[in-house]
Specification:
single chain; 246 residues; Metallo-beta-lactamase, Chain A; 6-stranded mixed β-sheet; 5-stranded mixed β-sheet; 7 helices; 24% helix; globular; binds zinc ion; hydrolase
């Protein structure tokens, strides 16, 4: 599904457009001309649906150069192994996501508690694979015509990154689970969800002047996306929490 002249939605679950498997986060393809990237990998329950969407919009699997991962939760990284094996994409992620993927770490990804809470099937596991490029705050990766900047945005969980880029003066953010339409957030009763850090991460976005927000769930925001940040911050600055999508 084409969203802008360079961005496609190729995966989305029931907290979004229900394009692929019910558990999937929003999965985007960024067409940078000479190079192509995917942002987030879905849950890995039916990764073949995401792979098929890449081909259906006219790309070859081998066209995908990078797979950027925003954070180490199962709905965002579960499909990484299959996507990497089928495309040869280099995986870009934070140090914590690297460790989670390498070891299939159920504790640091909170899959252990998510299974206990009945959110994932008991037999679910993350396929393990190597992250090729570990990035930290402000690191930049070129994807053809675009330069994506990693922004450290913890709060929803540790090791959370958002990826920012500019196209013809328009400012884009692949936000993962940082912030959503109308300034909502994603807070959970898990060990590394930290609402203070989340507020600080939202505050850090205040001067970005975003046009387009491509979040990990729910709707995309194709213009005036800074309003979502402002709405979210309007709660935090009163020491309150914005509504959560979860
Ligand atoms: Zn998450």
């Amino acid at each position: 599904m084409r969203l802008t002249n360079s961005i496609y939605l190729i995966g989305s679950g029931s907290k979004g457009m229900n394009l692929t498997n019910h558990y999937d986060c929003n999965v985007f393809l960024l067409d940078g001309g000479k190079e192509t990237a995917i942002i987030d990998a879905g849950a890995g329950m039916e990764p073949e649906k995401i792979l098929k969407n890449i081909e259906d919009i006219g790309f070859k699997l081998s066209d995908v150069n990078y797979l950027f991962l925003t954070h180490g939760h199962a709905d965002h990284i579960g499909g990484a192994k299959t996507i990497k094996e089928n495309t040869g994409a280099k995986i870009v992620a934070s140090d914590l996501t690297y460790k989670i993927l390498k070891h299939g770490d159920e504790k640091n990804s909170s899959i252990d508690v998510a299974k206990k809470a009945g959110m994932y099937p008991k037999n679910y596991s993350i396929g393990t694979c190597e992250v090729d490029i570990v990035v930290k705050d402000k690191d930049e990766i070129r994807v053809g015509n675009f330069v994506l900047q990693a922004l450290s945005t913890p709060g929803h969980c540790e090791g959370h990154l958002s990826f920012y880029f500019i196209q013809e003066q328009n400012k884009f953010l692949f936000g993962g689970d940082l912030v959503f339409y109308e300034g909502k957030v994603a807070t959970q009763f898990i060990n590394d969800c930290n609402v203070f850090k989340l507020g600080q991460s939202i505050k850090k976005m205040k001067d970005l002047n975003l046009d387009v927000l491509l979040p990990g769930h729910e709707t995309v925001v194709l213009k005036e996306a800074q309003e979502c940040i402002e709405k979210s911050w309007s709660y935090f600055e009163k020491l309150q929490l914005p509504p959560s999508i979860l």
